[in-house]
UniProtKB/TrEMBL annotation:
Species classification: Bacteria, Bacillati, Bacillota, Bacilli, Lactobacillales
Enzyme class name: lyase
Species whose genome carries this gene: Limosilactobacillus rudii
UniProt cross-references to SUPFAM superfamilies, sorted A to Z: Thioesterase/thiol ester dehydrase-isomerase (SSF54637)
Localization: Cytoplasm
Protein name stated in the entry: 3-hydroxyacyl-[acyl-carrier-protein] dehydratase FabZ
Amino acid sequence: MAIMTAQEIMDLIPNRYPICYIDYVDELVPEEKITATKNVTINESFFRGHFPGNPVMPGVLIIETLAQAASILILKSPRFYKKTAYLGAIHKAKFRLMVKPGDILKLHVSLKKVRSNMGVVETKALVGDKVACSAELIFIVADRKEKI
């Protein structure tokens, strides 16, 4: 059962189609951890070129999907609500499994550190019980720019 829908996610983070990758949030413990879901479908625009005849989700987009889940966790904190979380660094990224159409990517993010306007999270993207990707991500949080 989803505790945050796609629309609620878009109300919190600035990402929009075609680069809003989180379908729903399964679990959220504010300032601690989040589990979210990305349903990987053959209709994803990146599969047209990556790779014809052997569609594989690009590693950089798996990291982006993890970063979006981390943004939700960070921005649900009262001190960062209505702000924007920017990816500042990627450490210890490891890719262990190809993600293909039909896979359900479960994103697990744990908050490790928060200092004034930055945060450190540990992340894992799983397909079933297998780790597809893991990484430590560093975030910088800034005021959200107003629409003009």
